Amino acid sequence: MIKNYIENANFEDTGFSYTLSLISGKHKMVILYCLMEYEVVRFNELKRYLKKISDKTLSTNLKELESDRLIIRTDYPQIPPKVEYRLSDRGKSLMAVLDQLCAWGEQNK
After folding, report:
1. How far is it, in rounded angstroms, from Cα 51 to Cα 101?
2. Please, which pLDDT band fits residue 102 given cuts at 50, 70 and 90?
3. DSSP state of 54
4. E strand spans, the chain
5. CB atoms near residue 65 (< 10 Å)
6. 90, 66 contact by CB (below 8 A)
7. 3-state SS of 86-105?
């Protein structure tokens, strides 16, 4: 399979490149992993889990994951505002890939 990627003249058109574009960045995989672990998470819970992340960076990452249809944002019309995030079915299907990354890391660290 990797040979097909190498032989492909345009790396950007590969499935590998597409997958990387969805999870690239410092925080996206950690956000997805957190949602896998805890299922439904609020913004401040994610912020505590990630520790050193600004509100703007977290918000941007969440918006990108939502636009890529990997997470679902649920707004509750109340005061104070309540917003929850969870994995979409598409996001859940990506967890097998992240699990393999974790397993490889455990075996090779």
Report:
1. 22
2. confident
3. -
4. 40-42, 71-76, 82-87
5. 25
6. no
7. EECHHHHHHHHHHHHHHHHH
Beta-bridge partner residues of 72: 86
| Rounded Cα distance, 94 and 83, in Å | 23
Q: Give 59-87 pLDDT, tens digit per residue.
A: 999 999 999 999 999 999 898 889 999 99
CA dihedral 91, 104, 28, 36 (to 10 degrees): 40
Length of the chain: 109
CA distance 99 to 105: 10
Are 93 and 23 in contact, with CB atoms under 8 Å apart? no
- The CA distance from 89 to 86, in Å, is 10
By the 8 A CB rule, do 85 and 46 touch? Answer: yes
Question: pTM, whole model, 2 decimals?
Answer: 0.81
